[in-house]
Amino acid sequence: MKLLHNAWKWHYIKGASSSTRHISLLNSDDLTKLDHGPLHATLPDSYLNTGSVYVHWPYCRQRCSYCNFVKFIPHPNSHWTVENNTLENFIVKELQHNLRHSHISSVHSVFFGGGTPSLARPQMVEKVLKTIQEMCSLEENVEITLEGNPTSLETNKLKDFKAVGVNRVSIGVQALDAASLRLLNRDHSVQEALHCISIAKQLFPGRLSVDLIFGRPNQTTESWERELENMLTVCDNHISLYQLTLERGTKLFHQVQSGEIIVPDADQMADLYEIAVSLLNKAGFRRYEISNFAHGCSAESVHNKSYWQGLQYIGIGPGAHSRIIPKYIKENNCLMHETKLHNSRIYEASKNGLPEQCSNNCIIREARVNAADPVNWLREVKLKGAGVRKITSQTSLDVVSEYVASGLRTSEGITQERWNVFMPQITLLEIFNEKTKWLQEGKLLHVTNEGVKASSHGLNVLDSILPYLLNILEEKFA
Questions:
Q1: H or E segment at 346?
Q2: What is the dihedral of CA 413, 414, 415, 416, to 10 degrees?
Q3: If DSSP codes are grouped into helix, strand and coil, which group holds residue 303?
Q4: Among 166, 185, 183, residue whose Cα is nearest residue 121
Q5: Three-class SS of residue 225?
Q6: 3-state secondary structure of 293
Q7: What is the rounded CA–CA span in Å between residue 196 and residue 176?
Q8: Number of alpha carbons in the 13 Å side-chain half-sphere of residue 234
Q9: I need a surface site. Which of 227, 380, 411, 459 has the fewest CB within 10 A?
Q10: Which pTM value belongs to this model?
Q11: What is the pLDDT of residues 419-458, one digit of tens each?
């Protein structure tokens, strides 16, 4: 049986690993009350002061049959529909609040995505970038990405978005097959997709990415290979491949469950993926992450790499996720660590710092999730400045677990240098070397003084390896 990864668009499906342990749970009412919060061990300024911004625009013209993302279809009489100008102003208000209460002083990437932000006004992008420049700074080579669908309406607006600062576009083509587009309930045609790609190449040379879904109903290896070859004739920068997943509650899920349609099995999915990897490699594309292929380093997504490397990011808008170190998490006072007592966790403080064996339990960051629907999100921002509904404190162990889960998806893997930012008291070699000998001997994993990474074949079967590695990490600090 061949095993294949499950490909996820982390920036707006999960935000990051969903395996985070809930150590403390706060609602948004607590945000303004926290004069003293959990405290973090000393982190380098390079980590504290830099981050990215993700703006989630929740609206789409229609819902795709496979989609379970936080999205809303605007209708004139729907209470979910909010005027563009109002939504834009509250996005700016939340961004101001988060920047004001974070350590971030330099932003290296901004991503507008989630729904169909290219249906919004270019003024929204302009307002966000102006706010960042007023409150901190945009790095010299900042990446500003706009996500959109290749409809005629959106294609016609690309030039306007470029004029206000967008310098990279990610186009959700998903298929170059008319039957598949109808089945997935996409709102564009093959011809529109090809036209959009052509226009985008002229406006954003070297900074164009397209998304394709594989594992679609009735898809064969032959038809998939032809589709990829057609795509390569028009897109020579960046291609993201996502395996079709059946999400409970979607129309496609019910169609498959009822037997109305059939999707490829696990072995066929693996064949489709391996064909794509081989074909893209021959065309000069490098697989720098399981689902992402770039023609040269300059075409790689700076924003997505920040997720995989465990960097800070501020999520703005309904349903957005964040990983952030707020200012009320103080340094060099006392350190907090968790102690299990009768199957529960309590906090204990040590004025003199933590003993070495407890240092992995220092709280160093927060995972935040915004209210999902626009109406509740607007109410939260109006009352408290931010739309956050849940805050989960993250220890060093939580953060490195996320880094292992995401970093191993990349060709770089998890590096000792980046690991040292969060847990310098122990090396990756000490944790993983002995217990992964069988994976190293099977040429699935490389473990060195520099770090840990999956081999080319190991990336193909990462889902079967990753739980074992995370168990090693958990047991080490149990």
A1: strand 344-350
A2: -150
A3: helix
A4: 166
A5: helix
A6: strand
A7: 13
A8: 20
A9: 411
A10: 0.86
A11: 999 999 899 999 999 999 999 999 999 999 999 999 999 9
